[in-house]
Amino acid sequence: MNAVADSQDPSTLERRIARWRAETPGCARVNHLNNAGAALQPEPVLRAVGDHLRLEGEIGGYEAAERDAQRVDAVYASLAALLGTRPGNVAVTANGTAGFIQALTSFDLARGDAIVTSLSDYTSNQIQYLALAARLGVRVLHAPDLPEGGIDPQAVREILRSTPARFVALSWIPTHSGLIQDVGAVGEVCEELGVPFLVDAVQAAGQLPIDVQSIRCDYLVGTARKFLRGPRGVGFLYASDRALGRGDYPLFVDMRGARWTAPDRFEVAATARRYEDWEFPYALVLGMGAAVDHALREGVAECGARAFELAARLRGKLAAIDGVELLDRGRRQCAIVTAAVAGRSGDEVKRELAAAGINVVATLGEFAQHDLGRRGVESGIRVSPHYYNIVEEVDAAAEAIGRIAGAAA
Fold first, then answer.
1. Is-above-0.70 flag for pTM?
2. In whole angstroms, how large is the CA radius of gyration of the chain?
3. Which of 130, 240, 270, 370 is the most buried (most CB within 10 A)?
4. In 3-state terms, what secondary structure has residue 65?
């Protein structure tokens, strides 16, 4: 824990860990190492969601929304602080993927248009690119990786110089491994060549500090449920001043995002709220706001460093186990650890760990056809600790995986 301990003495860190765990009820019930799926929510998040749901039950949904309007508005300010932007550049979406789709549909794509992405982009994003190719005739160009893994920014530059592209889209951290892609370098290339840049930060939010200005992105999307420790079913979208100034808006703009000003005219909202839907999950939005406030209060960089160190500890232990293959690549690796156990499927390993009270999730080769699939990996497990986890939980997971690998040998 050196990176965390450097900023505070061990006794202070121990007290913080005790507080984090005390305010997280799930810590008393399970060894939760599936934070890349959905983290355990702390009490402030549970209260925010529960209080608004009770209010809806007492006075009605529309009436509760009116009463909590100022609290909802404050969520935009919190998200803006998380992202390094202004509230007017932030929209609430149903989830990260929904926000990503909204951003994609801002571009009027036509047959022959090119979009550039990475070999490690998120599964759903890759499927959407293929759907655009099938329906519209769009060309999907995958920039090659660096030798150690992760998109090669110079290769992106060369592609964009030789092939006009409508946009570049990149998953900062793919869901299937601990790889951290260099979004800053790709953003610099896109700005230099005047190409819009879309960033999927679903796995980055809560692990890494985010500054949309330094990333130079036109759009960035995230979700509440993962490392931000918020509720499921809600996410956010950032739209830059550049994107808003172009007049971008989603293909299916909703009455929350636009006004019907005449029988044959509509006018989109001046802010990023043009990407929002009328049906709005107020309780979940307030829960997301509580999660963001909690992350800002505890320190995203500091908590992320602790999570990274727990993951590094786990990687070191798994690397020493016969029959276990680490799957993570890249110069930098985050708090997502992926590994395959020889002779056992990811689902089998997940079930055995669950029986021992350890939460992980299986990852499949089909989730990453251009990465795991090319390496011949059919399945594995994804283990993702966070700052509220303790060393003993990580070690228990490693020991359990070791027993499973030994039994399969």
1. yes
2. 22
3. 240
4. helix
Give me 353's structure tokens. 């760990």
pLDDT digits (tens, 9 = 90+) for 48-102: 999 999 999 999 999 999 999 999 999 999 999 999 999 999 999 999 999 999 9
Residues in contact with 388: Cβ distance below 8 Å, sequence separation at least 6, in sequence order? 17, 20, 21, 24, 27, 40, 42
CA–CA separation, 343 vs 365, rounded Å? 15
Residue of 261, 258, 255 lying closest to 271 (CA atoms):
258
Q: Angle 153-162/183-193 helices, nearest 10 degrees?
A: 20
> What domains appear along the chain, each with residue ranges and CATH number?
2-32+299-408 (3.90.1150.10), 47-297 (3.40.640.10)
C-alpha distances in Å from residue 377, one per residue of 204, 328, 342, 381: 24, 12, 11, 11
The distance between the two most distant Cα atoms of the chain, rounded to a whole number of Å, is 71
236 forms beta bridges with 92, 222
Model pLDDT for residues 174-198, shown as the tens digit of each residue:
999 999 999 999 999 999 999 999 9
If we measure between CA atoms, which residue out of 310, 304, 315 comes closest to residue 204?
304
Torsion of CA 235, 79, 291, 198, to 10 degrees: 40
Q: How far apart are CA 166 and CA 163, in angstroms?
A: 10
